[in-house]
User: Fold Phosphoenolpyruvate-protein phosphotransferase from Clostridium amylolyticum.
Amino acid sequence: MIKGIAASKGYAIGKVFLHEEVKIVISSETVDNVEKEKKALQSAIIKSKEQIEKIKEKTMKTMGHEKAEVFEAHLVLLGDPEFTGAMEMEIENNHSNAMKAVDDVMNTFVMIFEGMEDEYMRERAADIKDVSKRIIANIAGKSMSSFSIEEENTIVVAHDLTPSDTAQLDRSKVIAFLTNIGGRTSHSAIMARTLEIPAIVGLKDITCQVKNGDMLIVDGIEGTIIVNPDEKTIEEYKNKKQSFENEKEELKKLIDVKTKTLQGKRIEVSGNIGKPQDVHQVIANGGDGIGLFRTEFLYMDREDMPSEEEQYEAYKYVLEKMESKPVVIRTLDIGGDKKLSYLEMPEEMNPFLGYRAIRLCLDRPDIFKIQLRALLRASIYGNLKVMFPMISSLKEYQQAMEIVEECKKELKSEGYRYNEEIEWGIMVEIPAAAVNADELAKHVDFFSIGTNDLIQYTLAADRMSEKVSYLYDPMHPAVLRLIKMTIEGAHSQGKWCGMCGEMAGDESAIPTLVEYGLDEFSMSATSILSAKKIIINC
Ligand code: PEP
Ligand code: MG
Assistant:
């Protein structure tokens, strides 16, 4: 059995198609006719644009607007003078041939992106490679990939799949894919989840371990592969596949169900999002609302702070799409493992215990106010609730609310409207807040428990460290006690309590959380339906 990173759930039984990358030899020969080389580059860029436009249209039809955005990003890259201009400069200054110029610029950009701390940004190096290789293929007059899959039940095995490769996979023939490299957040993994085909990535050398025509069983839940299985094993997995599919079909019936426990308590099951467009997947999976919008993603992946106007548009978009359903937006939680390239942060021994989230925002009201003003202005478009991350004491909440009041005054004097009924809450993710929950509940409108951090702080086990991951236990009695205290603290003051950490979607934890009286569960969109199923049986 071979094991990798399970990137998209499901089972597949089929035959291997080894996807070979088109090999183009790039010479280092210099050229005399610089103009001719620049022309070759220009026409390859134009051709690449046309090809990507076509792929984008196809993706839009088969996978929807959101997934087609990858190709919009590719088009932006092709139009970016810093990127393509650097290629021209290579030709002009170094007399490089066009292919070599593209290859050199690609390597420089890829190195910069791969060196970034943020995983999402690192994965974007794949987009740069994808676009550059297309330009090179067009200069060479070759076609970019060699997908000519004739047979049904094919499992594509590749070193890596570019977003455009993934978008071109024929769903009627390809039932799964496996790659040597990649992580759960690589575009191909995200696309596999949208296509709803099982995928396993990060398999290191799967392209060497299997050959064309091998029979494989792909278990996208465990992240395992069995090569040339015997009849008995095939039978076993056929049954697993069938029950997985039956269950998925069954779950769809719950999309419009308003979740209630057996005792009749209504419980909201909502989705966590990082980008405004993620809202669509929450809606498609029957989410009752948005329980956590991690706004720091609006600040990442760029070179400067998002303006008030940009943020206003992003919040308005989510509120409008969710109609009047609740949308909990968390104010900026930067620091810890999330850094901004354009914001200088102190070097700290323990960044998770340091200058992050509300601590940074209270210290930098200039940054904080831009976000608060955008939130207030967007509030008229839906059912907005705002929460502050990493609150450890009442004072921090009060200071944050003073800044909110300042923003309200400013907006009023400038003639802007906002909703007076916004609920203001806090994330309970520091043990001190959980212990003091009954006191804090007198002042705030709601709590949302952030177990990802609460667990690491309670058990002194870094959430990023593999070495101590065995200590990171959501069901540790101390963690459970703090959760219970938080929920009871909220209820003692007539306030509601939700949870937006990963634990909310953990099937084994849900019954306990229901028993404790948790009012709202928020999780990744794809977990919503299975969580609903568990809750209605609690
Ligand atoms: C949490 O800490 O549980 C949480 C939801 O926030 P984040 O994972 O963004 O720190
Ligand atoms: Mg947190």
The chain has a mean pLDDT of 92.
